[in-house]
## 1
Amino acid sequence: MADALIDAALAARAHAFAPYSKFQVGAAIEDSDGRIHTGCNVENATYGLTLCAERVAIFKAISEGVRKFRRVAVAADTDVLTPPCGACRQILWEFCGDVDIILVNPRGKTETYRLKELFPKPFDASYL
Ligand code: THU
């Protein structure tokens, strides 16, 4: 089924700066107005400063004033579809809550999870 969010995640992947891992990831996040915000992973020679595609996408949107999100898509070229890392699950929870996370590869395989399934006991502001 055609889905602009999936297409955007796959397209964002082409911009990945991943000379060290060679593992290219794209992410796309749909906001409550239906706009799509994209990101790719951006690596660094110090390795530890690498930012994942998901965090680049959400921080881009947040920095433009967007605060409500509906869905997230993550694209990588793996047959077992690539999920967001733990750090990205925490950040996505902060801004998106229990949204659909759509995993996709370039061969059209997709799987959809609720963020709560991937991140069942999140720490958030409710504890503070
Ligand atoms: N990476 C992401 O961008 N998102 C994920 O969901 C998994 C991992 C990146 C980080 C690093 O640049 C490369 O993939 C290998 O870990």
Note: The mean pLDDT is 98.
## 2
Amino acid sequence: MFYITTAIDYTNGAPHIGHAYEKVLADVLARWHRMCGEPTYLLTGVDQHGQKVQQKAEAADIPPLQYAQEVTHKFTALWERLGISYDGWAATTDPRHEACVQKILTMLRDKGCLYKKVYKGFYSVRQEQFLTDKERLEDGTFGEEWGQVIELEEENWYFNLTAHTAWLKEYVTTHPEVVTPEFRRQDLLMAIERATHDLCITRPKKRLAWGIPLPFDPDFVTYVWFDALINYISFAGYLAEEGSDLPDFTKLWPAACEVIGKDILIPAHGIYWLCTLHAMGFADEQMPRLLVHGWLNIKGKKMSKSLGNIVDPNDLCDFFGPEALRYYLVRDTKTGYDSDYDPERLKMIYNTELANDLGNLANRSLNMCLRYCGGVVHRPAAEQDDELSAALRNSLAEAEKTFAEQMHAYNTADALAALNAHVGMCNGYIEQKQPWVLAKDPEKQAELQLVLYHLLESCVHVGYLLGCVLPEASARLLEQLQVDPAGLRPQTLAWGILTEGHTVQAPSPVFPRILSPEEKEKMAAKAAAKAARKPSAS
Ligand code: MSP
């Protein structure tokens, strides 16, 4: 089972391009594994508790649940537009999740992993956590990222995290697969050395009421991170009630891939989450694997309200279309590294790789097949391959191999680059073979059929594999090629999907060029001028 999860998004603001990147990346990987025939389950959702939601709800003068649900709708609407094919929805106010969190708290208390103590220290209101000297800057102050910092004395419940850090260090050292990419695992190993405090897992109700109540101490609610991390198991059916409609936990767990941003590896996922599971009794083989992606920035700067540079993915869907955005996000970002969101690059990559390269290839190939062969495909024998055609066939096999390897290694950008390189090879092949010249010579019919076969077969393979990134465009392309993807699998994709006598449909553009408003205006003016030059019908 390929159980893949994403971080659950805070419901204290609208979704932005960073949230969209993570969900598209996870969706592409989930679709890829489904294509490979692996049972796959994609879980995503929203993190609805915490101080910020409480504060925003107070400001809006509505109950926190209502506030959280209103924001939640913005996320679900966006995921629908972007075609995020999630199987499970993790909303932390779901009673099934709350019940699971409470059971886990009780279990940990009974195991002696929780204790109560009074702590006096500095507290970040923004990050909802106590700060230690490690967080201080050289001048003794706390950095901007902590927002307002106040002094607080408070009694709370603690999780004995430090009892598990020796195990964690050993585990992360000996299991390189736990964090991808490797350099993030190294970061984690260094951070474990600094994890010398236990974790405060409650907030007093008098200060923060919007959280899951502690089952054994009514004056407290659960710290939002402790609650949120548990979503990966609660919505996978862990400790679910009899007859619950949640999945069978034993079939899903451990998560093969928890997709998270670099900001929440340390300490949340890399330390708190793994230690919590260990404290609960999960064995090494039951630990989830973390895939850590970088951040999408804007002109090298972090997106922020104060800079006014937050990008709303809905605007991009309106202007470029959801699939253009999906392609750009996983093509222009190297998984694990930061990248800059740049609408000019989005347009350039889409117009070059999809509108020009693949779109033209498919249009020309289908058109030529219709014009020269009545839409009928003729399958040549392998021995008929000349040097160029054999090279094209090899190029496709290589591209497919690289695509599969890179997708399994989560490197979507390199996987797509490999397909695009093959498409480029096909376009070069058309120029070299000049099918329009072959079509004029009755003696060159066999060669013409061979050339068209190589082109159309390539379109089928590429169109099919792109299905995990561009589900709609892939379906349209395959429809024009009259190929049903249901019978195909990446592992067994071999030359010869198109059989002798196969017929194709007339092409209709799958990747219309993205034009800027100025380009659109120019085109409209050109069309108007052309119409004016034509003599009127009357
Ligand atoms: N609620 C927590 C996660 C709990 S998971 C048990 C949270 N929420 S978040 O809304 O702030 O972020 C959700 C995800 O989006 C995180 O993985 C985060 O890294 C990611 N991103 C937030 N901003 C981002 C960018 N600018 N670029 C890419 N992803 C970023 O953290």
Note: The first strand starts at residue 2 and ends at 6.
